[in-house]
Structure formats: structure tokens, C-alpha cells
């Protein structure tokens, strides 16, 4: 096996990112630690060195005992590989940890050491002088380390090394210059909550085994429905494993509402159903239709205007067309915040059409839902309160750790009727508590991960106003980027006008292309620019931003900002970096 | 707001469980801490008190500096509410944490304090003198604490308190006497891995943003396919959010294999499809059929023998019946380890029938798959290598934290063809690395949680032989239970013979019922016994085990053992506890 961790915790050129703001070597963990003195240290020492045996004295202030202390290693690599005084992981295995007899001590030491590794990673994640990614091609990465699984156990020293190595090659998704996905950033309270969720290690199907989490799901979904604008927050909902599944739920429930017999009889028993969504909508609508036996051909893509918004007149035309063919329109999925342009479909106009033709209105606000938290921006979702169902992913614009996606439904009880199978081994009818809290049978899943706690705890920590501030700041940053590049030499905007969401779509045109006429050759060359710049970004590890073609538009950058760590300087850096990496193309 | 945490970290009667092995008050955190001295303490102190600023000296052993230390509180409650010297969370908010300027110090302190809370919970979880659950009825729990979400932020002191309160009311799923679900126990390496996964906070859709995790998924799924017995571990697969979704995938892929046109045209384009599974199979087969537009009426339930195994002759009869009606049998889902009885369907006979009639053979080994790791028990799944797809949940019998469910498919590429939608914003075709590692488009989900790392790290830590030892031990414990109660007064077995899995199904018959004739009144009274004992178990918080009716059998206990902490003494305790709580009924 290769020596994997080498260099990871050391300082030096690997971390040099070319960042003009943070020149030279990295500020690393130990430098942070130097600044770090105080209560927690005392507390830990007291805990670790036996002060806890003293009787409680409120406000007591005796120093921790020194007698039992042993020499610490003094190297500046944490965790270091120096011989440890008392815990030698090379002689410890998983079988020495709890629930082993006398497993507490090694368990606490091991978990604390894992935590050290994680804390170092967290601190590094926010350090602009570190790389966003230490990129290796798949074959390199497969060869660089032995990832294979074997018959025999490894010792805990090796396990700690695997943790380091895994993080060495991971993307720092909390890094201030990571803009690659709609989900970026690393929230500290959300992270703490996710650690707690892992520690509680339970399932959402019944109140019996997840009492608090079931109640928190109830409280949180209700709050989200209130914010959508449904009276008294009434309705239903669930946290599902991602926006695609939330959208699939909406399609499933809409179909059931119109044709409940489909549950028993299948699609053979119902006429041909048609769903409508915009040509800029998320691919999950088609994926869902394929899975649900509706078929992708029955998903009609409605034209968008130049800003990526669904054109209501085209929607109505296609609905009438479908009806004339004897098909049954059953779902319109409007998008609030499209994936690429960040466009908001005109929800009021869509709602009017849905009402007129009695069609289930779904709003895919996976990306745009967060704007409902902002008094300044929520008007972009006006009409969402008329939807029958809404997908809203707090793991995107609200910065909740992955995954946290909600499907909200206006009509209560429908999800339950649609999905319940009454498994008697889980949902016993003769339990001693109120069975309405056994919510598992409304899910497609049986076991369901606890996704609510991180959102709930972040909400308590930030308040609605904290989410609002985050969202307003991200939109302001997007506007800042737009204002810089809209008239800057070498940039062309993909669509005109100020972005409605944080999506800023643009081409960077290298000097050699600026002189070319607007013809096919130029388009062909332009289409190769973004992939090359992106590849270089990853190889240097300085930043990450996404690109794609769309319709007849060749590869362009889609900048999105949901990362709470990003600042104006990071936007400036992005522009400079694109130019640095692309000027020779 | 009520004062929530009070009493949680204190010792006393709340923890008295009536456990004869651990009488009296709890061993609690601080007593653990008293035993705890050594390298980690030194290391933390060095880290926290500035030794790190010294130049690295390999093997250096200077003691940590004492100069900058401040007084620690000396109370024995951890975390305590005594005034802290340096970090006063009452004046700190989420906005003071990273990425805030100078956020490192409060962030490290906060995360470390969260970790303290979690470590205390972990230690308590394994302590038999603590309750499995501090049960409160839903309305009580809603009133006992303010769970509501508000506009304004709360300070970090309150956030830490919420963490404590949440854990106070949580089920200790790692507790040695928690037997309620197929997923029990809390593995320390798995937990560490899940914390790391949360910290990495990424998504599985592309290699670009999850390089290591994508490779580990590749390595791990291949290993699982090797163990199933597919030559060279070839084939395909995915980690999905739970066994129900894995089973739904199997159904989806089987349908696509036979009628690929269903993806575009929907179920209207194909004949009526019929799936077959046993009457003891998991409800997710019907749930999947309802969702996929196949309909629950098209899921034929095959009869089981008295041990809960599918009867092959009935399967063949029903296949022929369906064909005579002009329907198309497309899937047989055999179960390896049924939910209630733990029965293994005769896979070889089922495989013969599937081959004869050219039907996709799926094996739902969500619960039984773990036995493939045991040389002693894997014969129970003989024939699984002939399946076209297999569901296998390492989060059940292998003790991996929730969730970790794999769907393995023998034919490579089929999942991709079935589910791909070619979203150009994610799966750009002009990336600079090998695109075969962008595996996201074979999923139904778009974003997908990283579920592989905890399994991979546990596998490295335990080796295949470690999983084998765990599984052999759990099956031995089940046999121990069976041997005790099969002839014990007051017990009746639900089915005869030694259990094949760890499921032991039995009635406890209280003395007052033992004298009654075997008639309807007795059945009616017997049906009320298990729910009452279960309710009392939860109210006392001493243990948890599941019960249910099945077919014409009234409520019986289903004991299952997947908890690595359980011992023979815990089985003895369970029996005594059932008798203690049920003797008056």
C-alpha cells in the first residue's frame, strides 16, 4: 500500500493556489491552534485528566490536576504519526471499541481523533490558500492508494489514515471558491446537526423509534407550508431523498388524485395521461414519468422565452392539443428557479390555466424555494400559494447539508392514501400512542433517513431572518458579478438583463476569438473554451464553476452562488482566474 | 421555553432500569472520564495550548506549556452550565462561526462541545443501566419543549441545549437491549465514517464532485457482486435510499429489460405485466408496483409453507395461470430473509422456474444478504448467484449506520439505459476525465447522498471475517433464545424448528391464559398481550422488541438480533422482562 497521507497535513507548495490575496504557504491547523486558548481547552483537560471526579461546585475554578499528565508530542502535524503515550492505534482494532468491555477509553480516543481530522478539514475548507480540489484522474486515484476490501481487519491507525486520505482527495465543498453545484457551502450548525443525526442513527417510519424527529418534521413542514402561503400551514409533506424524488412524488400524487384506481389497476386502467413542463425544467420530470409508467413521450415541453420562463400561451395551446387527441392533462410542473438560467416561470398565469383546465399544479422550487425566505425576493414566486404541490430543497439555496429536500402537498391525507400499504409489522393499529404520528406509510421508502434535524437546528440558530440575510447576500453577489462582466471585454451574456436568481450565465471569449466573425467556426471554437478552462480550474484546484450547452447555445459558464463563504473578492478572483486560464485559448 | 436539559446529565433514578446486572445509579460520563488519561489528552492540550507553534521534532516529547492555561470549571456535569472562562455561547450566534472572520476559534469550540455531547450519548448508549428510551407521548413531547421555528436567531448556548434535549428523547439505537428493528446497534467506525461523510458534504452524481466516493462505490459494489457469486464481480449496481427503493429499481429494470419502449411510451404500450412474490415478502413490492403504474393487483402473492418460504409449485401454477390469461410475467421477487419469520425462499427452485419461463429473478436479500458474509450460513442463499438482481442492505444485518442499501444487477449497462436522461448541465460529454465514472445518470435520484463510505470504512476495519463473526454471533444468540423458550412454560413458538435467521417469533402466554382452551376468546385475549407488554417496555424504557399479527396468527413477538452489543445476558434479561411485564395480564 502506498503511503497515503504523506503531505496532506504538511504545509507548502501543494497549497499554493496562486491566490493574490493569500500568498505563500497555508495558514494551517496548528496556526489556528496557536490562537486557540480558553474554556474548551480547560474543559477538555478537566475531562481527560480526572477533575470530573471532584464534587460539583458551581463556578468552581480549580486548575486541572497536573499529576496525571503525560508528555505530548511536540510536532506540528495534527494528527501526527509520533508514538502516542498511551493510545497506540496500531495495536487496536474495531473490536476494541464499544461495545467491547473496557471499550470506552479507546472509543473516546478514536472518535476524538477522527474529530480532530474533521476539524482540521473544516478549518482548511474555509482557507482560501488551500485548494478546492486536489484533482487526480480516476485511474491515478485508483492506483495511488489501495482501496480494495479484504478478508482481514485493519488496525485503527490504518482506519484513521483512510479518513485522512479520503479527505485529501475530496472536494472542499465549503471552500469560498466552490461554485460548481446548486448546493455549496458548509454550515457549521448544519454539520453539527448532521453529526447528531448520525449518532442517533434511526429511521423515520414511526414515532416509536424517532419521536423527536417525527415531531420536528411535523413542525418544520408546517412552517414551510405557512411560508408558501397555505392557510394555517395546513397540508401535508415529506422530506425525500432529493428533488428528483420529490418531483416524482408530485407526479405520483397528482395521478392518484385524478385516478385513484391506478394504485391497484396500474396505468392500463386509465387514459393516456399528459404532463407539461418547460423546456428548461429539470430532467427529473422525464425521469419520473419514465419510472411511473407514464412514459417520457407524455411529458410535453413548453416553450420558454429568452429568459427561460415558460410561455403560458404555449402551455394552454399544448393542453388543448392534448385534449383534442383524447389525452388527459393531469399535471403542470412549473419551475421556480430553473437549473441553468435560474428562471422563474410565471406562476400566476400557470395557476390560472391549471384552474381553468382542472390540472394539478406542481411547482418545482427545488432551487428557487429559498427565495421565499426573503422579503425582498419572494415576489418572484408569487402564485406558489396556488400550487397543489411544491418541491423545495433547503440543501440548495438555504445551505443545509446534503440531503434535505421537501415535497409539500396542499391536500392533507392524499400522500397517505396514495402510498400506504398498511404493513402490520410496522404500523400496528393497537399501539399505545397516537398513530397519526406514524407517518412512514405515506412514503415510497420504507426506512427513511432523518433529513429534518439539520434544517430545524439551522433554522433555530439563524432564524428566518438569518436565511433571509444569506439569500439576499447571495443574490447581491450575483448582481455584482453580472454588473462587472456585462460590459467587460471578453464576456458575452447568455441572456440579457439582471439575473432573477443567483445564476449568471456567460461566455468567456478569449482574445483570439474576439476578432472572429459570428459564424459556425467561431461557435465551434467557443464551445471548446469553457471545458478547457474548467479542466484547468480543476487541475490547479483554484475554483470550480459549472458549464453546459443549452439548446442552440454552445458551452457557457453557469455561475451560481449559494455558498455562504463567498465574498465580493471571491467573485473578483473567479473573473481573474477565468481570464488567467483562458486567455491563451 | 421550558428548561429542557435539566436532569439529563445528572445521575439518579431516571436511569434505574431494574437491571439486576447493573443495580443502582448510572455509571456516567464523568466516571468514564475518570478512567481516561493518556495520549489523546496530551495531544488535545498541546493543540489547544499552543505547543503546535514549535517546530516539528520527530518524536519530540516536551510537556505542553502551562503558562496560557486558565481555570477549568470543576463541576462533574459535562457539558456543564458553569460560566466558561473564554467561550460564552450565550453571546455567540451561528454568524460568529466559520466562514466568519476570526470564526475558527468559536467554531472549534462549538463543534468540540457538540462532540462532547455526542460522545456522552455514545457512552450512555452502551450502558445497560440507562434507559433505551425516555418515552413521552406525542402531545407531552410537543408541550414539554418549545420546538417551534421563529424569525429571530437563537444563541449557541440554546443550540447546544437543543442538541442535548433532542438526544434526551431519542431512542438509544445502540443500546444492548434495543431489538425493535432489523437495523439496530451503533458501530463506532461506521459512526466515524458517517461524520466524515457529513463533513465532506457532497453528492454522488459525478466523479467531478465525489472522486473518492465514486471509486469506493465502484470497489464496494464489485466486492458485493463477487460475494453474490457473479463471475469476476461483473455487473452493475447502486446504493439507494433504502431497501424499498432498491426493490423498486429491480422492478423498473426488469420491466425495461423486457420492454424498453416503456421508457418513452409508458405502460400503455405494453401488455399487462405480472410480478410474483411470496405472501411473506416485504410490502415494498406492492408499493413499487403501485408507483410504477403496474398496479398492486398485478403483484401475485405466492403461498408460503409453515416456515414462511415460498412454495415453488404454487409459483409455477400462478405463472401458468397468468400466461393463460394473456398476461406477461416479468418479475419474480424471492425473499432471502423475510421481515417477520426470517425465512429464505428456495432460490434454486425459483431460479429454475425463472429460467424456464424467462422471467427476471430478483432476490430481496435486504435482511438476509448479510449471511453471505458467513461461511457457516451462506448456504441459506444458495442460488442467489442465478438472480438477475439482488437487494442487500448492509444497514441491517451488517450493522452499518442508516442508510446503506445496495441494489446489485447482473447485467452491466442496463440501469444506465433504463434511467439515463443525459442532462447536459451535469453529464457534459466533453469533460477531461473518463466519463464512465459519472455514474449519476443511472439513478432515479439526481442528487444522491454518499452512503458508501461508512460501509467501506467498516469493511476495512473489520474485514470480511469481522462481519462474519458478527453474523455468526447474532445467529448463535437467536438460537440461544430459541432453545430457552421453546420448552419454557408460558411460551409458544409461532413456527416450529430452529430459526434460519435471527428472527425468533413467539407468543408469551400469561398465567391467566394458560388454563384456557384454545378457542376464539383465548385468541382474542392473547392478541392483546404483546401490545400491552410492548407499551410497558417503552414506558419503563428497559428494552424494545417488535410484535405484529401475521395472516391468521394474532399478535406475537418478533425478536431479531442484529445488535453487536447484545449478549446472552441481554437475551436472559429480555425473557425476564417480558415475564415481569406480562405476568398479570
What does the model show?
Chains A, B: One of its GO terms (cellular component) is cytosol. 2 copies of one chain form a homodimer. Chain A is an alpha/beta fold. Among the domains of chain A are: 23-172, no CATH class; 202-423 and 434-450, 3-Layer(aba) Sandwich (Aspartate Aminotransferase, domain 2). Helices cover 38% and strands 10% of the residues of chain A. Chain A has 18 helices and 12 strands. Chain A has helices spanning 29-34, 39-48, 104-125, 138-144, 156-168, 188-200, 211-228, 243-258, 262-265, 284-291, 312-324, 347-357, 414-419, 452-485, 511-514, 520-527, 529-540, 568-582; strands at residues 178-179, 236-240, 273-278, 299-302, 328-335, 360-364, 389-392, 405-409, 491-493, 504-508, 544-550, 553-559. In chain A, strand 5, helix 12 (347-357) and strand 6 (360-364) form a beta-alpha-beta unit. In chain A, helix 7 packs parallel to helix 14. The longest helix of chain A has 34 residues, at 452-485. The radius of gyration of chain A is 27 Å and the shape is globular. Mean pLDDT of chain A is 88; it is low at 1-85. Chains A and B meet through helix 1, helix 2, helix 3, helix 4 and helix 5 of A and helix 1, helix 2, helix 3, helix 4 and helix 5 of B.
Amino acid at each position: 500500500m502506498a503511503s497515503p497521507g504523506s503531505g496532506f497535513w504538511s504545509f507548502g507548495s501543494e497549497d499554493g493556489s496562486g491566490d493574490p490575496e493569500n500568498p505563500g504557504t497555508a495558514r494551517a491547523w496548528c496556526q489556528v491552534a496557536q490562537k486557540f486558548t480558553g474554556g474548551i481547552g480547560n474543559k477538555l483537560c478537566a475531562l481527560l485528566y480526572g477533575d470530573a471526579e471532584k464534587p460539583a461546585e458551581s463556578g468552581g475554578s480549580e486548575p486541572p490536576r497536573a499529576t496525571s499528565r503525560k508528555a505530548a508530542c511536540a510536532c506540528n502535524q495534527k494528527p501526527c504519526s509520533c508514538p502516542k503515550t498511551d493510545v497506540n492505534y496500531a495495536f487496536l482494532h474495531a473490536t476494541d471499541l464499544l461495545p467491547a468491555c473496557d471499550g470506552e477509553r479507546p472509543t473516546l480516543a478514536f472518535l476524538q481523533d477522527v474529530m480532530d481530522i474533521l476539524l482540521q478539514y473544516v478549518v482548511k475548507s474555509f482557507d482560501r490558500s488551500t485548494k478546492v480540489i486536489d484533482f487526480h484522474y480516476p485511474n491515478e486515484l485508483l492506483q495511488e492508494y489501495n482501496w480494495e476490501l479484504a478478508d482481514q481487519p485493519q488496525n485503527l491507525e490504518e482506519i484513521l489514515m483512510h479518513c485522512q486520505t479520503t479527505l485529501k482527495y475530496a472536494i472542499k465543498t465549503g471552500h469560498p471558491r466552490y461554485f460548481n453545484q446548486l448546493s455549496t457551502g458548509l454550515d457549521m450548525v448544519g454539520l453539527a446537526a448532521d453529526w447528531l443525526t448520525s449518532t442517533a442513527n434511526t429511521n423515520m417510519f414511526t414515532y416509536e423509534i424517532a419521536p423527536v424527529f417525527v415531531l420536528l418534521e411535523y413542525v418544520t413542514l408546517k412552517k414551510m407550508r405557512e411560508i408558501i402561503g397555505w392557510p394555517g400551514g395546513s397540508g401535508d409533506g415529506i422530506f425525500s431523498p432529493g428533488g428528483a424524488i420529490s418531483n416524482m412524488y408530485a407526479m405520483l400524487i397528482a395521478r392518484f388524485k385524478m385516478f385513484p384506481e391506478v394504485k391497484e389497476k396500474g396505468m392500463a386502467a386509465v387514459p393516456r395521461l399528459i404532463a407539461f413542463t418547460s423546456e428548461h425544467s429539470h430532467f427529473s420530470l422525464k425521469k419520473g414519468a419514465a419510472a411511473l409508467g407514464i412514459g417520457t413521450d407524455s411529458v410535453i415541453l413548453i416553450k420558454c422565452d429568452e429568459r427561460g420562463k415558460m410561455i403560458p400561451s404555449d402551455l394552454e395551446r399544448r393542453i388543448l392539443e392534448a385534449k383534442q387527441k383524447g389525452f388527459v392533462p393531469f399535471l403542470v410542473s412549473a419551475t421556480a428557479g430553473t437549473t441553468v438560467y435560474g428562471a422563474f416561470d410565471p406562476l400566476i398565469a400557470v395557476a390560472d390555466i391549471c384552474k381553468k383546465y382542472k390540472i394539478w399544479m406542481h411547482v418545482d422550487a427545488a432551487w428557487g424555494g429559498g427565495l421565499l425566505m426573503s422579503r425582498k425576493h419572494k415576489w418572484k414566486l408569487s402564485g406558489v400559494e396556488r400550487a397543489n404541490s411544491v418541491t423545495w430543497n433547503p440543501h440548495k439555496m438555504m445551505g443545509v447539508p446534503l440531503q434535505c429536500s421537501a415535497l409539500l402537498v396542499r391536500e392533507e391525507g392524499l400522500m397517505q392514501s396514495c402510498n400506504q400499504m398498511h404493513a402490520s409489522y410496522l404500523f400496528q393499529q393497537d399501539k399505545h400512542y397516537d398513530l397519526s404520528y406514524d407517518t412512514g406509510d405515506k412514503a415510497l421508502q420504507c426506512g427513511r433517513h432523518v433529513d429534518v434535524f439539520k434544517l430545524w437546528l439551522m433554522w433555530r440558530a439563524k432564524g428566518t431572518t438569518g436565511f433571509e440575510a444569506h439569500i439576499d447576500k447571495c443574490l447581491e453577489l450575483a448582481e455584482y458579478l453580472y454588473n462587472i462582466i456585462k460590459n467587460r471585454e471578453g464576456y458575452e451574456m447568455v441572456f440579457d438583463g439582471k439575473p432573477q436568481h443567483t445564476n449568471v450565465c456567460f461566455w468567456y471569449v478569449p482574445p483570439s476569438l474576439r476578432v472572429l466573425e459570428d459564424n459556425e467556426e467561431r461557435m465551434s471554437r467557443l464551445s471548446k473554451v469553457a471545458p478547457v478552462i474548467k479542466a484547468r480550474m480543476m487541475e490547479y484546484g483554484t475554483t470550480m464553476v459549472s458549464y453546459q450547452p443549452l439548446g442552440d447555445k454552445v458551452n457557457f459558464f453557469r455561475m451560481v452562488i449559494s455558498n455562504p463563504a463567498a465574498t465580493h473578492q471571491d467573485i473578483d478572483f473567479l473573473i481573474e482566474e477565468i481570464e488567467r486560464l483562458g486567455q491563451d485559448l
